Amino acid sequence: MNISVKQTGYVRRSIVNEEGESKMPAMLMEHDVDPKQKLLEDLGDLSNIEIFNNQILVAVYIRPTKTKSGLYLADRTIDEDRYQGKVGLLVGMGPSAFHDESGQWFDQAAFNMHDWLVFRPSDGWNITINGVLCRMLSDTQVKMRVPAPDVAW
Question: What fold characterizes domain 28-151?
Fold first, then answer.
């Protein structure tokens, strides 16, 4: 596969294949530590937290300050992730989360703890647990699953 960088605007760039399809996130971030491991470590033991019904708890991904290309993001940009972050790590589920006997919502979809999920920020209820920003969502408010948090912003 031949890969090239395509300018798609004033600032944003994406890696595209020969067919012009974007294959990588617009902004790759420099992670000193795996973001999943960092969130789980910071959250600590959640076994004493009980989530009800079809609710889920996601730990909000907040980007690091440095991109892979060496650019540093402004503090204000990072702060904006607290309000507009759209990706979170699934860290808790109620007993009926992602179970839909009618097949209307989750037909052939299996969700697992520690999946990276994408959601609309305004759908969630902000809550801080053990110093980590999280959001409570209904299972049907999840829009997609991504392999890594930098894939979507």
Answer: 10 Kd Chaperonin, Protein Cpn10; Chain O (2.30.33)
Say if residue 138 is exposed, middle or buried (CB neighbours under 10 Å; 0-12, 13-18, 19+): middle
The CA-CA-CA angle for residues 99, 102, 107, to 5°, reads 65
pLDDT in tens, 54-90: 999 999 999 888 888 888 888 888 888 888 999 999 9
Q: Map out the domains of the chain as residue ranges.
A: 28-151
Question: What pTM value is reported for the model?
Answer: 0.79
Q: Which residues of the chain have pLDDT under 50?
A: 1-15
Buried b (16+ CB within 10 A) or exposed e, 47-78: eeeebeebbbbbbbbbbbeeeeeeeebeeeee
